[in-house]
Amino acid sequence: MKFRCDKAELLTAVSNVSRAVSGRSAMPVLEGIQIKAYDGMLTLTGYDIELGITTSLPAQISEEGAAVIGAKLFGDMLRRLECEEVLFETDEKLLTVIRGGGAEYTVLGMDPADYPELPELKDNDSLVLPQAALRSMIEQTQFAIAQNDAKPVHMGSLFDVEEDSVTLVSVDGYRMAVRREPAKTGLETRFVVPGKTLAEIARLLDPDDGSDAQVELRVSRQYMRTTIGEYSLITRLLDGEFLDYQTAIPKGQTTEVIVSTRELMNAVDRVSLLISDRLRSPMKIRFEPEQIHISCTTALGRVVDDVPCALTGKGLEMGFNNRYVLDALRAADCDTLKLQISGPLSPMKVVPPEGDSFLFLVLPVRLKNE
User: Fold this and answer.
1) Residues 190-228: pLDDT tens digits?
2) For position 369, what pLDDT does the model report?
3) In 268-288, which positions are buried (b, 16+ CB within 10 angstroms) versus exposed (e)?
4) H or E element: which one contains 63?
5) Closest Cα partner for 183 from 127, 125, 246?
6) pTM
């Protein structure tokens, strides 16, 4: 195999597909990027058995062929080359030369025959969403994806697809995030996509593409393929019984608070200065008719802060994990929020002032005097 191509384009492609490459694997070939050069195009693939990312770019190909090159080393070499064009050449023994500017690297590649094939999707459903909407849905729910495997299915987000809407749900046992988007899908299905895959999809979705750009999700029983521009991602879906999120949402409330998102977020951020992993202490929030009073005491000292609000119903005092509240506030995409609570030990609902586009649920922390 022998080809010549633009260094910047190749480096971008290598950097993106490398995110699906295993850091350490029992199969060394999975620590590499598969490169195929045919018909004037390079195809690069990274695959760790759970997630695969593939992309193509143009190249001047002198000899067609394929090889696998260690992903980290390949990326590091390209970053250090001072040139606009890279020459890549590998022989039958997989001895590979990468040349650019006055520098030349010679490394041993791996046999492409040992690289596993990406799964083929059969009997799949197709779901089309605006890129801007899908990116927003992921960004507003990924903070609540579980980070441990106590229940592996919660290490991803549930897509609850109905004929007229798509709802994305994440839950980790302490908080829940629900984001609903109207969409004419013509489908009724549910599947759970790993959090790592969703993070990569959001990263590849271009926020400057505008709301007219579409992204297609093709879903089979075990896998999902997402096509975004020149990139294709295929991921294994998560198995297991996801939380019945509709039942978990409290019905009704005894307290409702309207507050500025920015003012409340800044106040919680200021109070958080005295809280750390070593100095853990619940943040105490007292909801009053015209203000929210926030306080916290740790070994470093005490902090208090007040935020104006409009309260309907009963005033009450609750304890919260400061980081969980901050995550929910940062994920909100509106200037004003509505907080709904049905008691000092009930979850707090964070919703927009109008409509039902999102709902964040934050569980309280029991205060010592309760």
Assistant:
1) 999 999 999 999 999 876 655 578 899 999 999 999 999
2) 63
3) beebbebbeeeeebbbbbebe
4) strand 60-63
5) 127
6) 0.91
Say what the alpha-carbon torsion angle 303, 307, 311, 315 is, to the nearest 10 degrees: 10
Q: pLDDT tens digit string along 34-85? A: 999 999 999 999 999 999 999 999 999 999 999 999 999 999 999 999 999 9
Cβ contacts of residue 169 below 8 Å, gap of 6+?
Answer: 141, 157, 158, 160, 176, 177, 178, 179, 242, 243, 245
Taking alpha carbons only, the member of 365, 364, 324, 360 closest to residue 170 is 360
Instruction: For residue 284, give the nearest of 318, 321, 324, 326 by alpha carbon.
Output: 318
Structure tokens given for 58: 């143009």
Q: What is the pLDDT of residues 218-263, one digit of tens each?
A: 999 999 999 998 999 999 999 999 999 999 999 989 999 999 999 9
Burial class (CB in 10 A: 0-12, 13-18, 19+), 41: middle
The single-letter DSSP state of residue 244 is -
